[in-house]
């Protein structure tokens, strides 16, 4: 998927280094892109996911902590299409449970928003494609560890954003220092997992601040 981003940049004829922002599984793709194509990234924003191959990922993916807050890692990553068999046909209540449970403000994502997401996720093969990202975690772990050994830590400025009501924030400092030389972590107050939806103005303010503060660093 990191290659898809590069192909999109080529299609759009964008040749200058970019500011890349990733949330949740998109954060993992963004991190992968930055490790593979570091000269294409001027700065990187990472939000709300543990990076496979880091100590933080191991601490949440292999302990009782993951059985409560991150239980879905195991369900979605199960072989033999178990997740598809259990969830297809029940996408709306299943997905909405995440938008409500992981939010500090359950009204931030409206029912109309959820219905829009469900319309996309009920397209043929859509849920399966999403679950395959979880099934790739083991490969991602190996790829990320190898990249860290061979290429070292990321050198561009990295900003980690985490909601104060989310599991991610306590992990962010240690995790990002493991993979990046120049990382800053900032909390988003009164916010859970869905930063852009729950606190859009604060999110944009922090993003603009990061761009301004790191201008010319890369």
Automatic annotation (TrEMBL):
It comes from Caballeronia novacaledonica. Residues 4-204 form the AB hydrolase-1 domain. SUPFAM superfamilies: alpha/beta-Hydrolases (SSF53474). One of its GO terms (molecular function) is hydrolase activity. Pfam families: Abhydrolase_6. This is AB hydrolase-1 domain-containing protein. Keywords: Hydrolase. InterPro entries: AB_hydrolase_1, AB_hydrolase_fold, Epox_hydrolase-like.
